[in-house]
Write a structure and sequence with these properties.
The complex is a heterotrimer of chains A (131), B (409) and C (119).
Chain A: E1 6-8, H1 9-12, E2 17-19, E3 25-28, E4 31-36, E5 43-49, H2 54-58, H3 62-75, E6 84-86, E7 90-93, E8 97-99, H4 109-118
Parallel strand pairs in A: 2-8
Antiparallel strand pairs in A: 2-3, 4-5, 5-6, 7-8
Chain B: H1 2-5, H2 8-18, H3 21-34, H4 39-63, H5 67-110, H6 114-131, H7 134-145, H8 150-157, H9 162-170, H10 180-194, H11 197-209, H12 217-245, H13 256-302, H14 316-334, H15 339-364, H16 368-371, H17 378-404
Helix pairs in contact in B: 2-7, 2-11, 2-12, 2-13, 3-10, 3-12, 3-13, 4-10, 4-11, 4-12, 4-15, 5-6, 5-11, 5-13, 5-14, 5-15, 6-13, 6-14, 7-13, 8-12, 8-13, 10-17, 11-13, 13-14, 15-17
Chain C: H1 3-7, E1 10-12, E2 18-28, E3 33-34, E4 38-39, E5 42-48, H2 68-78, E6 82-85, E7 89-93, E8 96-99
Parallel strand pairs in C: 1-8
Antiparallel strand pairs in C: 1-2, 2-5, 3-4, 5-6, 7-8
Chain lengths: 131, 409, 119
């Protein structure tokens, strides 16, 4: 997993499911961030973008994407760019992409948390185990 | 016995494709208007869903990926979104109709207007989704749905000329009172009903809910080879019943309680009571199927944690979507809209959703990266490709036929 | 900069021909080291082609082996695809990528090695 792989971004990375270190679903790869190398000659993939607004940006609905980021900033202030997952954290690329982090640390968790705390937690039985 | 119970996932899935409220009425109406001249459409449909559900189940078992994840991954977010919108509407419209169906079944037992029963129906549906474990839910409603075998009992009791029925089915013809266009429209409607996308959404997501692995591929096959043919068998029985009882009297079918009449007529009160239980279970099961599918589609497209196999707290957005869907569905029913008409409108959306759903399944079940050595064999591929062509032709023909025939009038 | 912006961009050659939009991007894992992942994925080149639905499916660049009809169909479509190595790219500005090589001098995308590409 350290070097030498070749792959096609659209086929192998984009729109793949992200899974956290515990096997929990953590969103999809909505877009990829590109950065320039030090010599300025090449581009490389520096981060995965996933979460509020990133998909809207990809579908070229920029205003909707900005609006979503605005809503997110209101709801969870001080979290910085919620959609960015540094590529350093990727631990496996297969039919899904595994990230060496807890899903709670990722940007898309804030929407889930909000719904959990404001809606679901108030309904009796929400902590009940399924079996 | 435990082994037999394991096929209930597919029985519950098949309920949505063959005996939910839309299908019960459509099969009844088809038998009354076309006799058994459209039986072949059900047979073509059931083979198609068996082929594709087996692939979807196999992909879910081997890779843990349910259908809608594959839709977004292979078609991209643009086409994936188009499918999501179409499928979400189908899921929601059908859910609305099924909630009405449950209320109607309850009202058939209690002799009150079904609108009064809607809040009760919606609450019970929601509580089952919220609290009942997936496997229990599937077993309970899959087995209760078998009470629909009362249709078969009634059919046998009528003592029909089986040879005549078979030859009618084997020699399809357009009846004098109908046009080739209405014939084609009903054929497409029956085929589309048998292959409705939420069946594979539910079946593959159910496979993930049940934690199927590579070791469960035989179970996957047992499910599809038993569940769907059973559904088709019930479908055809209803068609045959109305062929015998309604067609000679030129009675047409447009509401759910009418479908129960031939059973009361042929087999008496006990069979009718059994049938009402079956209709309740089938519409309830289809309501569960479509409500959960609403959550599955949206959750899987957006990469959320989803499903009944985790605590509601851990899949909050998924449960919010499902809860809102049931709530809005119940409200929609209480506006008094005709539930059967609602299912007819959802047929239009199937035109978009069918190809965009089944194409990714075919591609991924051939992907060595996903499936290892469990990719499709050449015979299955040939059959699946033929069906994909049929699906595309059906998708293209649906809207024009709907316009020409004014919705099959 | 985002990959989606690159993939929506049109490629213009020195004769000002619009060669179409970027269909996919080839990444090679020999960029700067990102701990603990390893070497980053460097953009190696761009595939141009019609934005056909089949390109993401994996028939040409992935491991999809069937059904026969679809595989033959998509392989045929791929023959018209062109590949722009990153060295040939002069500028990328918003929606436009300017390259130094003429359209008719571009070659086909590199043959994928399939599952063997992974170490």
């Amino acid at each position: 997993m350290s070097a030498g792989r070749t792959l096609w971004a659209g086929l192998r990375l984009l729109d793949r499911q992200l899974v956290d270190r515990n096997g929990r679903m953590a969103g999809c790869v909505d877009d990829l961030e590109l950065a320039t190398t030090e010599d300025g000659q090449h581009l490389y993939v520096s981060a995965i973008l996933s979460g509020p607004g990133a998909l809207a940006q990809r579908l070229r609905r920029r205003r909707y994407g900005s609006w979503m980021r605005g809503v997110h900033a209101l709801v969870s202030p001080g979290e910085g760019d919620p959609t960015r997952i540094a590529f350093n954290l990727v631990s496996d690329i297969g039919d899904h992409i595994t990230v060496a982090a807890d899903h709670e640390e990722l940007g898309s968790a804030s929407a889930e948390r909000w719904v959990r705390d404001h809606v679901i937690a108030h309904i009796p039985g929400s902590g009940h185990a399924p079996e | 016995m435990k082994k037999m119970l394991q096929v209930t996932l597919c029985i519950l899935t098949a309920i949505g494709g063959f005996v939910d409220i839309g299908d019960l009425v459509a099969n009844g109406e088809t038998g009354a208007r076309f006799k058994l001249g459209l039986a072949w459409a059900v047979i073509v449909g059931v083979v198609g869903i068996i082929v594709y559900a087996e692939m979807a189940g196999r992909v879910a078992a081997v890779s843990g990926r349910p259908v809608f994840s594959l839709v977004r991954e292979r078609l991209g977010p643009g086409f994936g979104l188009a499918n999501l919108l179409a499928s979400s509407f189908i899921n929601f419209l059908t859910l609305t109709a099924e909630i009405a169906g449950v209320a109607i079944a309850l009202s058939m037992a209690a002799s009150v207007s079904y609108i009064v029963m809607v809040p009760l129906a919606a609450v019970v549906i929601w509580v089952v989704i919220w609290r009942l474990p997936f496997e229990r839910m599937e077993q309970l409603f899959g087995l209760l749905g078998l009470a629909l075998l009362a249709f078969v009992v009634a059919l046998v009791k009528l003592g029909p000329d089986w040879g005549h029925l078979f030859s009618q089915a084997a020699h399809p013809a357009v009846p004098k009172e109908e046009t080739p266009f209405t014939y084609a429209y009903f054929a497409i409607a029956l085929f589309g009903a048998a292959m409705t996308p939420y069946e594979v959404f539910f079946f593959s997501s159910g496979a993930v809910e049940e934690h199927w692995t590579v070791k469960d591929l035989a179970l996957n096959r047992a499910n599809v080879y038993i569940g769907f043919p059973l559904g088709a068998f019930l479908s055809l029985s209803i068609m045959a019943l109305t062929t015998l009882v309604f067609a000679p009297r030129s009675i047409s079918v447009d509401a759910l309680p009418q479908v129960a009449l031939p059973v009361a007529f042929a087999a008496g009160k006990v069979a009718l009571a059994c049938l009402i239980v079956g209709i309740f279970a089938a519409t309830f099961g289809a309501a569960l199927e479509t409500a959960l599918s609403t959550g599955y589609c949206i959750g899987q497209y957006l990469g959320w944690e989803w499903g009944k196999h985790v605590r509601p707290r851990e899949a909050s957005r998924f449960y919010l979507v499902v809860t809102v869907a049931v709530l809005l569905g119940a409200l929609a029913v209480m506006t008094g809209v005709d539930p059967v008409k609602v299912t007819e409108y959802s047929i239009v959306l199937s035109a978009a959703a069918l190809p965009l759903t089944y194409f990714p399944i075919l591609v991924v079940s051939n992907d060595r990266d996903y499936m290892g050595d469990k990719t499709n064999g050449p015979v299955l591929n040939f059959l699946a490709t033929v069906y994909l062509v049929i699906i595309v032709l059906v998708a293209v023909a649906t809207i024009p036929l709907m316009i020409i025939t004014k919705g099959g009038a | 900069m985002r990959l989606s912006e690159l993939m929506h961009a049109h490629v213009i050659d020195p004769d000002c021909n619009d060669l179409g939009s970027v269909d996919d991007v080839r990444l090679v894992q020999d960029g700067p080291v990102l701990q603990p992942f390893g070497a980053a994925f460097r953009v190696d080149g761009l595939v141009l082609g019609r934005r056909a639905i089949g390109t993401r499916l994996g028939y040409y660049r992935g491991d999809v082996v069937g059904p026969w009809l679809l595989r033959a169909l998509f392989r045929r479509l791929q023959r018209r695809a062109k590949y722009v190595p990153w060295e040939a790219v002069q500028t990328w500005d918003g929606d436009v990528v300017r390259i130094a090589t003429r359209g008719n001098q571009l070659g086909l995308p590199p043959e994928p090695a399939g599952a063997g590409e992974r170490p």
